[in-house]
Structure formats: C-alpha cells, structure tokens
Specification:
Length: 296
C-alpha cells in the first residue's frame, strides 16, 4: 500500500469511527408496587379504608414520542475546514395506541420506529404502560440524531393535613457507547414545584419524577420532600400542612437523546490531513492530464 492509499484508508477509518454497531440507550421507570398511591378514585373496586387523604382527578395525559434521522456521512469541507453532515430522512412516531387503563395506573401508549430498513438504520421506542415508562434507542451501523420520550401526568386533590408519596424504580442503561454511563441524582424545588432526576451526566438517558401544586396559602411551607433508595428507587412526598384542600399534579418521564459525537482533536487532524491529500492529488492529476494533452 502506497502512502496515499494509506492516508485515504486512515481517513475512511476516521469517519467510520463515528459509528458504533449495536449501541443501545435505555431509560425506564416502574411504579413501586406496580400502581399509583391509593388516593380516592370514585371506583368501589379501588377505594376503601386503605385510601389516603385525597383523590385522583380524571385530568391527565400520557405521551409516547419517537424521532430519528440517520447520519449517512461526515466529511470536512476542504475550503472551510468545517465538518459537514449528510442526513437521511427524518422519521417520527407518536402515540400509536392510547388507552386509559384502571384508575390507579398510568395508561397505555406507544411509539416505535423500526430499523434497519430502506429509510433508517435506527430503532427508537417509547412506551407508556400501566405501571412502567420506557424510552430507548438502538443504533446499528450508523450514528443518528434520535430521541425517545415516554411521559405521564395526573392531577390530584390532597385533603388538609394529609400527604402521599409518589415513587418508583428508575433504571438507566448504555451499552456499546465509547463513553460509559455516568449517572447521578439531582433534586430541584421551589415554592410550587419539585423534581427528582436520575440522569446520565452526558445527557443521553434520564428518568424524572415531579410534582407541582397551585392555590398556595401564604403560610404553606415544607410541601415537598424526597428520598433515593436502593435499586434506583425515587420517592417524592407531597404534604399539605394547610387547613384546606390542595390542588396539584404529579408527573414522570423517561428520556433518551442521542446525537453524533464531536470528533476528538486527533480525528479532526486526520480528517483535515486526508481532505488535504485528496485535494492535492486531484490538483496534481489535473496538472498531469494538462501536460499529457499538450501537442508534441
């Protein structure tokens, strides 16, 4: 192999190194005990002496959404030195099936992009189940710009001097990515909102539970508290210390976001060197052809 062939092969390898075969990203959330807290529902099958001091309302939402587009190729523009991407067709799926489910469960909905096929080489799935949320992306032989989300919200009314805990198990998984999963929990709150997240520090996978309330009294404090337990158990407790009913909503979501990686400095140099050699060879060949075309 001559020097030129070696550099072109190295350039091709540098571009190919952007992709990782069978790389998967997955975020899941499963309700503790497989159900929502026992707030009253108005259904004798679910209400009884075990019911807590509050009620679920009928207002809520579920959403399963999947998007992807394949990165077909990447090359450095020899004139500008900018890395340029060639993208494939955008793919989208949203709420292919929706159902309410029993009163103390989340419902049913899913979205799914099937690959590999003529349009995409990326599998993307989002699912809202009765007791679980799941978002996932699987890359085959290409990099992709892909995202999946499965979310759930439900309104509630909490009686005076009552509390309940919304909890479930969060799991994150990344297989085949050059950067290993590095997860941490974060807790954010203010007077009327709180969220607890288990997420990858690179922003690729995360699971979040949260709550918001409205109709606050001026003396209402210490509404939210949280805990993180073994196995990714996330728990958020809502407490009504006032003398009147408190209105609010809970939410949960699983999210996956995957984008093509930014090349390392060594890769940039390799790409630039390869592009320069290709350009130099093209000019040399053009000059050679011009010399051969001169009359004897």
């Amino acid at each position: 192999m001559n020097k030129f062939s070696f550099m072109v092969a190295a350039l091709a390898c540098g571009i190919a190194s952007f992709a990782h075969a069978n790389t998967t990203y997955d975020a899941r959330f499963a309700l503790e005990d497989g159900r929502l807290p026992f707030l009253r529902t108005g259904s004798p099958a679910f209400d009884g002496p075990h019911s807590l001091g509050g009620e679920w309302t009928n207002r809520g939402s579920i959403d399963a959404t999947a998007n992807s587009r394949d990165l077909l190729s990447s090359a450095v523009n020899p004139d500008t030195g900018v890395l340029e991407h060639t993208w494939g067709q955008s793919n989208h799926s949203d709420n292919m099936h929706r159902a309410g489910g029993p009163p103390i469960y989340m419902g049913e909905s899913h979205a799914y992009i099937n690959g590999p096929n003529d349009w995409t080489h990326t599998n993307v799935a989002a699912t809202v189940g009765w007791s679980t949320l799941r978002a996932g992306v699987e890359l085959t032989d290409r990099q992709a710009d892909a995202n999946a989300r499965a979310t759930f919200t439900r309104d509630f009314s909490l009686d005076a001097h009552s509390s309940f805990t919304f909890s479930g198990f969060a799991t994150l998984d990344i297989v085949g990515d050059a950067n290993p999963l590095s997860a941490a929990t974060t807790y954010d709150t203010n007077g009327s909102f709180a969220s607890l997240t288990l997420g990858d520090l690179f922003g690729r996978v995360r699971t979040t539970i949260g709550a918001s309330i409205w109709g606050l009294g001026s003396s209402l404090t210490d509404i939210f508290s949280y805990s993180v337990g073994p196995g990714g158990l996330l728990a958020l407790t809502i407490t009504n210390n006032s003398d009147a009913a408190l209105q609010g909503s809970i939410n949960a979501g699983t999210y996956v976001n995957v984008s093509p990686p930014i090349p390392e400095p060594e890769t940039w140099l390799l790409l630039l060197a390869g592009a320069g050699i290709v350009g130099f060879t093209a000019r040399k060949r053009k000059a050679s052809d011009a010399v051969m075309a001169l009359p004897a």
